[in-house]
Amino acid sequence: MRVIMLGAPGTGKGTQAGLLATYLGVVHISTGDMLREAVAKRRPLGREVEEVMAQGKLVPDALMIRVVAERLQEHDCARGFVLDGFPRTVAQAEALDRLMDAQGRAVDLVFLLEVPEAEIVKRVSSRRVCLGCGRVFNLLLDQVASAGVCPTCGAALVQRADDTPETVRERLRVYEQQTEPVRTYYQKQGKLRVIAGDRSIAEVQRAIQEAVKRAITSTTSR
Ligand code: AMP
After folding, report:
1. Cα-Cα end-to-end distance for the chain
2. Tell me, what's the pLDDT at 141?
3. Atom 19, ligand 1: residue with shortest CA distance
4. Alpha helix positions (H), the chain
5. Which of 59, 105, 113, 213 is the most exposed place for a label (fewest CB within 10 A)?
6. Percentage above 70 pLDDT, the chain
7. Does the pLDDT value for residue 222 go beyond 70?
8. Which atom of ligand 1 is nearest to the CA of 56?
9. 66 CA to middle of ligand 1, Å?
10. Can you tell me the mean pLDDT for 37-61?
11. Mean pLDDT of the chain
């Protein structure tokens, strides 16, 4: 199954995409994680995107499309994927459809997580990420995170460079201008499922899995 997880920063799309990928037995591909890794490892791609990311702006479409096209050709994507953070513009959504077409495949479902803006600001300012293993914590939900050390690998927990209040505001503005139109793109294809994200992680995941089951039942009963 090929699934896309859409949502503004702080709506929980990374967490939900990871859980859904495990449930479906497919890979979780986060473009944000791929770029952050390239920055941390000082790869040429990382040097190209570091400044744009720190400003909360989007990496140019042509570059992102190339990165994702290469990733989707890898063997582990053959059974499907949950894509998180891509597409973020209509041009990226169109490119993804062309890529899928060329493989004789298609995106099956698109989830959009919706969370009120006040809740987003609260969540993002309390988000911490492990410098070692990349695990994400929330100071409001995970008491262990307040110690500042990852309980899994022992590395330091830090705030993401783009989680500062000014950058978050810019990321929300970019989302509204450039990513909101992607919603209409998939709505027209009949693939969009809007999920209320201001509930517990488990409740949101249950709603997502129920929508997946309904989609599978309706395809097999056709
Ligand atoms: P995320 O972890 O999904 O919030 O992504 C972090 C940052 O990576 C974004 O604010 C962008 O600067 C960059 N980025 C990730 N995915 C994309 C994409 N599909 N198109 C453009 N920029 C992206």
Report:
1. 17
2. 87
3. 86
4. 13-24, 31-40, 44-54, 61-72, 90-102, 117-125, 165-174, 180-188, 201-220
5. 213
6. 99
7. no
8. 10
9. 14
10. 95
11. 94
Asked whether residue 73 carries a pLDDT value surpassing 80, the answer given is yes
**How many angstroms is it from 9 CA to the middle of ligand 1?**
9
Spell out the residues 6+ positions from residue 212 whose beta carbon is closer than 8 angstroms to its own. Answer: 1, 3, 20, 23, 24, 109
The answer to whether the beta carbons of residues 135 and 150 sit under 8 Å apart is yes
Active site residues: 13, 88, 127, 160, 171
**CA nearest ligand 1 atom 2, residue:** 32
Distances from the Cα of 185 to the Cαs of 83, 188, 201, in angstroms?
Answer: 16, 6, 27
pTM greater than the 0.85 cutoff: yes
Identify the three-state secondary structure at position 161: coil
- Alpha-carbon separation of residue 26 from 4, 74, 133, 179 (angstroms): 12, 13, 20, 25
| Tokens describing residue 158 | 């830090």
Tokens standing for residue 53: 């990311």
Q: What is the pLDDT of residues 118-171, one digit of tens each?
A: 899 889 989 999 999 989 999 988 888 889 999 999 999 999 989 988 899 999
Distance 49 CA to ligand 1 centre (A): 10
- Pocket of ligand 1 contains residue 64 by CB under 6 Å: yes
Across the range 90-100, mean pLDDT stands at: 98
In the numeric block, the tokens 């994702």 are attached to 68
Supply 194's token pair.
């809007």
Query: Is residue 97 over pLDDT 70?
Result: yes
Rounded to 10 deg, the angle between the 180-188 and 90-102 helix axes is 40
* Residue 28: its H or E element: strand 27-30
